[in-house]
Amino acid sequence: MSNTERTFIAVKPDGVQRALFPEVLRRFSQKGFKLVGIKLTFAKEELLREHYSDLQSKPFFPSLLSYMMSGPVLATVWEGKDVVKQGRALLGATNPLQSAPGTIRGDFALDMGRNIIHGSDSVESAEKEIALWFKKDELVSYKSEMYGWIYE
Ligand code: UDP
Ligand code: MG
């Protein structure tokens, strides 16, 4: 399994406003993942339509877009073994009422439309989302000094 798999994780506007982003950064870092991109940004409607293109026909799509534009989003890219699937596990289920305690949504959210965080659901969508949110030169390549203590 590759140590260079990447995923896109975004702290949504409610997570930023509620100051939950340090908790997100802490959980992903302490699990052993390497941060390779980060920026605080207002998402444009056009970007969000592309980001959530699979949900276009859903009744909650308009409210999802206004939720995602209600404040700045902390966009991040993480690298490491199985990071897409592991990242989804750290997030918990989409509906916070069904997210297990110990997960980010399970510990900090109640409503689906205020579930504080996004994570790519497959390696393919991670690639699409990273390219959508980040320019190539905004992603950083560096050797993590903790890798020898994380990977055998
Ligand atoms: N969402 C919602 N109502 C729903 C389903 C989803 O408001 O019935 C929102 C929720 O914020 C979710 C986002 O739309 O995180 C994207 O939905 P998806 O099914 O992709 O869930 P995710 O991948 O974020 O867990
Ligand atoms: Mg999704």
UniProtKB/TrEMBL annotation:
Give the Enzyme Commission number. Answer: 2.7.4.6
Protein residues bound to ATP: 12, 60, 88, 94, 105, 115
Query: Which coenzyme or cofactor does it need?
Result: Mg(2+)
Task: List GO BP terms, alphabetically.
Answer: CTP biosynthetic process; GTP biosynthetic process; UTP biosynthetic process
Q: What GO MF annotations does this protein's record show?
A: ATP binding; nucleoside diphosphate kinase activity
Annotated keywords: ATP-binding, Kinase, Nucleotide-binding, Transferase
CDD domains given in the database record: NDPk_I
Q: Which SMART domains match?
A: NDK
Database matches in InterPro entries: NDK-like_dom, NDK-like_dom_sf, Nucleoside_diP_kinase, Nucleoside_diP_kinase_AS
Pfam families reported in the protein's UniProt record = NDK
Its recorded reaction(s) are:
a 2'-deoxyribonucleoside 5'-diphosphate + ATP = a 2'-deoxyribonucleoside 5'-triphosphate + ADP
Nucleoside diphosphate kinase-like domain residues:
4-141
- For the protein in the UniProt heading, the enzyme class is transferase
What top-level branch of life does the organism fall under?
Eukaryota
The residues responsible for catalysis, as annotated, are: 118
Q: Which PANTHER family match?
A: NUCLEOSIDE DIPHOSPHATE KINASE (PTHR11349)
Family to which the UniProt record says this protein belongs: Belongs to the NDK family.
The name on file for this protein is: Nucleoside diphosphate kinase
Species the sequence originates in: Pichia membranifaciens NRRL Y-2026
